[in-house]
Amino acid sequence: MATRVLVFGEELPLRPAIRVAVCAGARVELVADPARLVERAEAFAPDRILFHHDHAGPAAMLLARRLATVVPEASLVLLCHASPPPDLHDLLLEPWFGHLLGLDSPWFMEALAATLAKLGGQEIFGLGSHLPWGTRLSSYEVAGSDDKRHVFDGIEAFMGEMGVRGRIVARLQAVADEMLMNAVYDAPLDEARTPKYASLPRTVPVALLPHERPTLRFGSDGRTFGISITDPFGALTPETLKRYVAKGMRRGADQIDRKQGGAGLGLYLLYDSLHTMCLNRAPGRCTEMVGLIDIRGSFRDVVEAPKSFGCFVRT
Fold first, then answer.
1. Sheet strand arrangement including 308-313
2. Coil, helix or strand at residue 64
3. Domain holding 192: CATH number?
4. Are 266 and 182 contacting, i.e. CB atoms less than 8 angstroms apart?
5. For the chain, how many helices (H) and strands (E)?
6. Interval 40-96: pLDDT, tens
7. For the chain, is the Cβ count within 10 Å smaller at the N or the C terminus?
């Protein structure tokens, strides 16, 4: 049976989303009237809902909550032009919220296709699924905190070959630093499944045991820079990630502590630095954080680009 995708909003601005869903083999129904949305959702019983947040206006949160109650089995994917939306902090606190795509993102159609595929049961792990087929990826097994210098040098050399230098490269290295910090200090668990190194100051070097080591990958097609870190513990939950990002938006990064058992500062800074932030998790087995940044424009373009967010879990 074909996947049922309910699209909420006007057809013209959502035509790219409709095309992606149709080309994925879905049965698509479009609803533009907010007053009819819940009724049509009950009748159509969708597997996915593409919800145009801007079209709903001030009623967006209430309408999305209603949908989550009426068709709880449907995955709700929020679409926004101005992304992140003004109410993102409140959205992050909603249990049903896990997917936000910027309609003005340069890779919106690719991101939506990947989202629908993952929600449909396809493989959720792998940086390669976020970049064009054949993109060369560099891979580093991280043996400890001292390995980050090799990663920084690799990013600088790779970007230099493409003619990208200065503040954009520094931003990419900062993203790699945060990913490494979280994977080295916060991800490893002991036999009792409690954080092993999280209470250590980040000035204290950590050498990881072979079974604790994460893998960092990065690559680019010249338009998008993609980076990921994969650890073998699968401890970071979507709820924890959303909570820390919301905390950072509410209080500011300087008021988030790197405390035992938590990676709050690093997770918030990652969200703030990336255009797409994606968490893939197999509980107890694997955590993968994927980040994408559009590197085509100026540093100002990098700072102001729309943001997307996604969480996927496989048991």
1. 27-31, 4-8, 48-52, 75-80, 99-102, 308-313, 276-282, 286-294, 224-231, 215-220, 137-141
2. helix
3. 3.30.565.10
4. yes
5. 11, 11
6. 999 999 999 999 999 999 999 999 999 999 999 999 999 999 889 999 999 999 999
7. N
Co-location of 25 and 113 in the same domain: yes
Q: For residues 163 and 302, state if they share a domain.
A: yes
Tens digits of per-residue pLDDT, 118-137? Answer: 999 999 999 998 998 889 89
* Cα separation, 139 vs 120, whole angstroms: 28
Positive or negative, the CA dihedral 111, 112, 118, 122 is negative
Structure tokens that stand for 156 in this block? 């600088």
Segments forming the whole domain that contains residue 54: 4-119
Task: Give dist(CA 146, CA 19) in Å, integer.
Answer: 46
Separation in Å, CA 219 to CA 18, 168, 228, 276: 29, 15, 9, 15
d(CA 64, CA 38): 9
Quick: pLDDT tens for 77-89.
Answer: 999 998 899 999 9
Mean pLDDT of the residues in the chain: 92
Q: How many CB atoms lie within 10 A of CB 97?
A: 21
Length of the chain: 315
DSSP code for 2? P
Cut 0.90: pTM above it: yes
- Residue 159's pLDDT is 95
The residue whose two tokens read 């604790």 is 212
Query: How far, CA to CA in Å, does 28 sit from each of 15, 63, 175?
Result: 12, 20, 38
